[in-house]
Design goal:
The protein is an alpha+beta fold and 304 residues long. Helix content is 36%, strand content 24%. Helix 5 links the parallel strand 3 and strand 4.
């Protein structure tokens, strides 16, 4: 295989993983027709069909699956090795791609990575907001953020934030004239602001705990979001109770724009952890990001 065809092999790997010429083209930064022509040319050179195309999806043939299994790991090794060469430079450089919840970006990542970006102008950080459990290897991210430290065996988890406490709040305008919830089950008689999870497509059931008791409640309302700041905005605007991180609503509670309810039932969750692939060699830019984010304070956040 000629050297100039390495780009076609890389394009094939992306198409096979994404199962879409459109998504592959977006990742590669080229046109959809360009990717399609490259795949046809690769199949012609190899003399075998690699992809099965339909109007809705793309899948690998038996030969394509075999090529993907052989080529993808080697291309990743080449990319990792090229990235490690930047360690020879005086100033760390390169792009670090991170997928995370918007709350994690706002509260844990951005405050500590902004000074890093100012100190190292040759480092670029790409943030991608995602509420699901992203496979960072297949999606070509360098790291991801999730609650807790449970990750796959080939991943490393580093705590980047204290434990997180959730709160239930509503606006004074919404609560006026209504009975205040005394137990989590009382929320079923109220309008609530829901969160839809991307992984399963279901509405998130609110978790509560009090002593040794733990319950989860499915609530209903007029609004559903997949974004925490918008849920908070809906609560402030009187659309019902919202279930959001306590640190987001403290200022609103202090100002009186939101009222806290069910405080005895507010649960705590393990704090945010950064996870990344365990590799023998790590790009210097990623190493700097990890050290900048590593949490060194008390594990538990201050209670309300």
């Amino acid at each position: 295989m000629a050297k100039e065809n390495l780009n076609d092999l890389q394009a094939f790997v992306v198409v096979a993983r994404e199962r879409s010429f459109t998504r592959a083209a977006a990742q590669l930064g080229v046109s959809r027709s360009g990717v399609s022509h490259a795949m046809l040319a690769l199949e012609a050179r190899l003399g075998v069909r690699l992809l099965t195309r339909t109007t809705r999806s793309v899948s690998t043939t038996e030969a394509g699956a075999r090529l993907l299994g052989a080529v993808a790991p080697r291309l990743q090794e080449i990319e990792d090795e090229l990235g490690s060469l930047s360690a020879m430079r005086d100033r760390p450089a390169g792009t670090v791609r991170i997928t995370a919840h918007d709350h994690a970006i706002t509260t844990a990542l951005w405050p500590r990575l902004l000074p890093l970006l100012r100190q190292y102008p040759d480092i670029q950080i790409e943030f991608s907001v995602d509420y699901g459990f992203t496979d960072i290897a297949s999606q070509r991210f360098d790291a991801g953020v999730r609650v807790g430290d449970r990750v796959d065996k080939d991943m490393v988890a580093v705590r980047i934030a204290p434990d997180m406490r959730m709160a239930v709040v509503g606006s004074p305008g919404y609560i006026e004239g209504k009975s205040i919830p005394k137990t989590p089950q009382d929320l079923t008689a109220h309008r609530c602001v829901n969160l839809r999870l991307p992984t399963r497509g279901n509405l998130y059931a609110w978790d509560f705990e009090k002593g040794k008791k733990s319950v989860n409640v499915k609530v209903e309302g007029q609004t559903v979001f997949n974004n925490t700041p918008l849920m908070l905005r809906a609560a402030v605007d009187g659309m019902g109770f919202a279930y959001v991180p306590l640190d987001l609503v403290r200022p609103h509670i202090a100002e009186g724009t939101l009222v806290a309810v069910l405080r005895d039932w507010w649960p705590s969750f393990p704090g945010y952890h950064l996870y990344y692939a365990s590799r023998r060699q790590m790009a210097p830019a990623l190493a700097l990001v990890i050290e900048a984010l590593r949490y060194r304070g008390p594990t538990e956040s201050a209670r309300f």
